[in-house]
Design brief:
The complex is a heterodimer of chains A (722) and B (179).
Chain A: E1 6-12, E2 18-25, E3 29-34, E4 37-42, E5 48-53, E6 58-64, E7 67-74, H1 79-97, H2 137-145, H3 152-184, H4 195-241, H5 244-248, H6 250-294, H7 296-302, H8 306-343, H9 345-350, H10 354-407, H11 412-454, E8 475-485, E9 488-498, E10 503-507, H12 514-521, E11 529-534, E12 537-538, H13 544-549, E13 551-555, E14 563-564, H14 565-569, H15 578-587, H16 591-595, E15 604-605, H17 614-628, E16 632-636, H18 644-658, E17 662-666, E18 678-683, E19 686-691, H19 693-697, H20 703-717
Parallel strand pairs in A: 10-17, 10-18, 13-16, 16-17
Antiparallel strand pairs in A: 1-2, 2-3, 3-4, 5-6, 6-7, 8-9, 8-11, 11-12, 14-15, 18-19
Helix pairs in contact in A: 3-4, 3-6, 3-11, 4-6, 4-11, 6-7, 6-11, 8-10, 8-11, 10-11, 15-17, 17-18
Chain B: E1 29-33, E2 39-43, E3 46-48, E4 52-55, E5 64-69, E6 75-81, H1 87-100, E7 106-115, E8 118-125, E9 128-135, E10 141-144, E11 148-152, E12 158-161, H2 164-168, H3 172-175
Antiparallel strand pairs in B: 1-2, 2-3, 4-5, 5-6, 7-8, 8-9, 10-11, 11-12
Classes of the chains: A alpha+beta (722), B mainly beta (179).
């Protein structure tokens, strides 16, 4: 009996209110504690301890005979530790009843810290204990900037040119104001009469500023596009490295569709964001200084409308962004509907549902219309008001400045220069007020990208994997247990052995766990408990590429990639010669139909390409498998989508293919498993029966016999009989 | 075996005759709670030590079409309208449903903040105070009726927000982008 003390928290009381409870199992007693209340159950009195899943969360239930008793209720947050506790306690009961039992003890789920220790908020992703709330945004920013590391020199040149351009921009208002009016046009001025020179200087400084902008703009485009290019590659590589579970998980699934959007956003960040931040920053500071030097009193006047402008911009810009994103979302809903209807146009027409589809289109179209109108309305108010506010500043300067000129306290040139700088400073100021909002969305995008880059694949290769360049093809499952979702196991402790060169049939109802068995064999997922061995070596120790290169799968639904027929057959074997491809196609009975296509093996199929029938696609998949020459072949409903004649051809193709290999075939149509050496009947994730066809048929009331008889009856009903 | 199987695992569950619906009238079904805390029933004189109840339309018609199932998850019958049943039956079924479809009702939103694509909630609910995190995407929100939302957090827990506009108040803007 185990002496390990295990505990699992629970958080829902009898009346549905949240509680702070704990179930403790010490090997002999289950103790349930919540506040001061405590109740104990002795294992000796119980038959089973189980977790029952609800739509949300679940219950811990003890069973003795027909009596079921509710021990604790918990939300989904605590499902994993509670499931482990239940399995451990049940295993202990089993062992005490049957000390000979070889059922392995359940393995403890990894301890996951679920909440941030600083703020107590739950982590968004359990695999990545990073609290978005307490995360230092500067660290994200620094990491984003680190993408620029490779191009440090170019970045330095760009920054210097930006500063140069910003400084040259300062000259024209000064030349065109103070110098022109006070020193050039007025007798006695330092440059009296030399208008040409001043204009030339103005043009030159303007030209220098524009020239610098052009050069840094070009360099900057290369930097930004380069960064995003390499970032996209990194993300795609990271995605290829990740396990199946990452793609099927609901929590992360959405991330992938956003990767494109987020990288584009970062492209703006590098291309437009940072440069404008630098240019505008330099300009504001420089213009501010010059204005104060020209006349500090006028400078203070400029500041009067600024707070209002900052307020409006900081309040309304986020709103505009929200409206844009709403518009975008509604637009994609509408596009989705249109796509849906066009893809399903046969169904729409066959059901005569055109008018309903039109009425489904109406409100969505209206939604887009409203969103566009709202965005436009706000924008048409916002920008003119900002412009009006800017004019208030200008009017104030004109008024006060004019008065002061009359009073002789400033020169006309100073006022003109001042007005020139005023025109230059509002743009950058406005940009700066929107910068906070823009900066935080860029950091959001970056953070989502880091989530993908940092995600750790669940299926990992060992540091020094065992290489088996040529595998024999022995397979063994030892007490394998697996669940896609917590506490909802699909495979309950399966043990089976398959010998080299044997053909095995897996039989059972939909959802029994047959395909999951093959997923575990190829390490698309790793078993939660137990072990899978190939040629006597645990697959977790094997080199993943050796393992997968020697296993081929033919599925019911064949995915054909966009490309030629030849490329699709050679998928995963880029080095295949034309001869090998044709040979494989011949072996798969595909050569004839391929050569009768107008473009033969060069026919482009897959998305947007030539449409092949189910049987034709299937034969391409078989040719793919033939070319791979695997040691282990998995046929998952490989002939299910075929008519009888095609099926005969494919059967013949398969028979050629299975020779000398270990084959695991899954089929609903039991007649396709005639050639199998042995059959395993899988029910609810367990092996219900195993043996040859004849042995299984001899079991009275056997599951297999029942299935065979049902199929036979069904065929007789339609008058085909086997 | 240590876990119960979910009914969905059964593939095709044989619910008797597949074409006719057996409606349970008030007289057909008597319910009580067992000592262990579960529902037990008597239907047509047959004693069932444990029965389960499922909503057929949990979002659109939570109180109609309630499927009553035995411990093998075979359907015994359907309650057409819950409010037509006896008071005790109604209460027992409601409490059983609230267990299966556990979703506390949010009574007050203390704070709602968006950070890096996740929404951080701090709420007072019918079950007590709770903080939870939701992924900011439309799939994590279900609409139940005109005024009600169901929010699904990252652990797949659910929270109901009746009259959500009023309830959210100034936080409505934070949720708006994914509605």
């Amino acid at each position: 009996m185990t002496t390990e003390v295990t505990s699992a928290p629970f958080d829902v009381g009898d009346d549905g209110s949240f509680v702070d409870g704990l179930v403790i199992f010490d090997g002999a007693t289950l103790s349930v504690r919540a506040g001061d209340a405590r109740a104990d159950w002795h294992l000796a009195d119980l038959d089973e301890i189980a977790v029952e899943n609800h739509v949300v969360g679940g219950s811990l239930v003890v069973k003795s005979g027909v009596e079921h008793e509710l021990l604790a209720r918990f939300t989904a947050r605590h499902a994993a530790p509670m499931g482990y506790l239940a399995r451990l306690a049940s295993h202990t009961i089993e062992r005490s009843r049957d000390p000979e039992s070889d059922a392995p003890a359940p393995s403890r789920p990894p301890d996951e810290e679920k909440s941030c220790p600083i703020c107590g908020r739950p982590y968004p992703s359990p695999e990545r204990p990073v609290c978005n709330f307490c995360l230092d945004k500067r660290s994200v920013f620094i990491r984003v900037l680190s993408f620029l590391n490779d191009q440090r020199r170019t970045v330095f040149v760009v920054l210097s040119l930006m500063i140069v351009a910003a400084l040259f921009k300062l000259a024209p208002p000064f030349l065109g104001g103070r110098i022109l009016f006070d020193e050039t046009l007025v007798p006695g001025g330092r440059f009296y009469g030399r208008v040409g020179l001043i204009v030339l200087l103005m043009v030159a400084s303007q030209a220098a500023s524009i020239g610098a902008s052009i050069v840094y703009g070009r360099l900057n485009t290369m930097v930004a596009v380069g960064v995003v290019f390499s970032l996209k590659r990194k993300i795609f590589e990271a995605m290829q490295r990740l396990s199946m579970s990452f793609f099927s998980k609901k929590q992360t699934g959405g991330l992938l569709t956003r990767v494109n959007y987020d990288t584009t956003f970062l492209q703006y960040f590098f291309h437009d964001g940072i440069p404008y931040l630098v240019v505008n920053g330099v300009q504001i500071i420089a213009i501010g200084i010059v204005m104060f030097l020209l006349d500090w009193r006028l400078s203070l006047l400029v500041l009067i409308p600024t707070p209002v402008m900052v307020y409006i911009t900081s309040r309304l810009f986020p709103r505009i962004r929200q409206l844009y994103s709403r518009q975008y979302r509604r637009q994609s809903i509408l596009t989705g509907l249109v796509n849906d209807v066009f893809t399903g146009t046969r169904v729409v027409k066959a059901f005569g549902n055109e008018s309903q589809e039109i009425s489904r289109f109406e409100p969505r179209n209206d939604g887009v219309y409203r969103a566009v109108v709202d965005t436009g309305t706000l924008q048409s108010v916002l920008f003119p008001s900002l412009f009006a506010l800017m004019s208030v500043g200008t009017v104030l300067i004109w008024a006060v400045g004019g008065y002061w000129i009359l009073a002789g306290s400033i020169s006309f040139g100073t006022l003109m220069s001042f007005l020139g700088y005023l025109g230059l400073i509002y743009g950058p100021l406005q940009f700066m007020t929107a910068v906070v909002d823009w900066w935080s969305s860029s950091m959001n995008s970056a953070q989502r990208i880091f989530e993908v880059l940092d995600a750790v694949p669940e299926v990992r290769e060992r540091a020094d994997p065992v290489r088996i360049p040529s595998m024999r093809g022995d397979i063994e499952f030892r007490n394998v247990r697996f669940a896609y979702e917590v506490n909802n196991p699909v495979i309950h402790g399966i043990s089976l052995g398959i010998m080299e060169g044997e053909m095995i049939g897996l039989v059972g109802r939909t959802g029994a766990g047959k395909s999951t068995i093959t997923n575990l064999m190829t390490r698309l997922y790793d078993a939660d408990e137990g072990e899978i061995l190939i040629d006597g070596i645990p697959i977790k120790d094997l080199s993943v590429s050796d393992l997968r290169s020697q296993i081929a799968i033919v599925l019911q639904e064949t995915y054909l990639f966009a490309g030629s027929v030849a490329e699709n057959i050679a998928y995963g074997r880029d080095d295949a010669s034309r001869e090998e491809i044709v040979q494989a196609a011949r072996a798969a009975f595909a050569h004839d139909f391929i050569t009768s296509l107008p473009e033969g093996y060069d026919t482009v199929i897959g998305r947007e390409g030539h449409d092949l029938s189910g049987g034709e696609r299937q034969r391409i998949a078989i040719a793919r498998a033939v070319l791979r020459d695997p040691r282990i072949l998995i046929l998952d409903e490989a002939t299910a989508s075929m008519d009888s004649e095609t099926e005969q051809n494919i059967q013949a193709a398969l028979e050629r293919l299975i020779e000398g290999r270990t084959v695991i075939a899954i089929a609903h149509r039991l007649s396709t498993l005639r050639k199998a050496n042995r059959l395993f009947v899988i029910e609810h994730g367990r092996i219900a029966e195993s043996g040859t066809h004849d042995e299984l048929m001899a079991i009275d009331e056997g599951v297999y016999r029942g299935l065979v008889e049902k199929q036979r009856e069904a065929l007789e009903v339609i008058g085909v009989g086997e | 075996m240590s876990e119960s199987k979910r009914p969905v695992d059964k593939g095709e569950s044989d619910s008797g005759d597949r074409t006719t619906i057996r409606y349970l009238a008030p007289g057909d079904l008597s319910l009580s709670r067992s000592a262990g805390g579960f529902l037990q029933a008597t239907v047509d004189g047959r004693e069932l030590p444990r029965v389960f109840v499922h909503q057929a339309f949990p979002l659109s018609m939570p109180n109609e079409y309630i499927s009553v199932r035995d411990d093998e998850q075979k359907e015994i019958g359907i309650i057409r309208r819950l409010d037509e049943m006896d008071q005790t039956v109604q209460e027992l079924i409601e409490s059983e449903l609230s267990r299966r479809y556990f979703a506390p009702i949010v009574e007050k939103v203390n704070s709602l903040k968006e950070e890096f694509g996740y929404l951080y909630w701090d709420v007072m609910t019918s079950s007590g105070d709770r903080r939870f995190t939701q992924q900011a995407k439309p799939e994590t929100i279900l609409g139940a009726g005109d005024q009600e939302l169901i929010v699904i957090d990252i652990d797949e827990n659910r929270f109901r927000l009746p009259r959500y506009r009023t309830l959210l108040g100034r936080f409505a803007r934070t949720l708006d982008p994914i509605l």
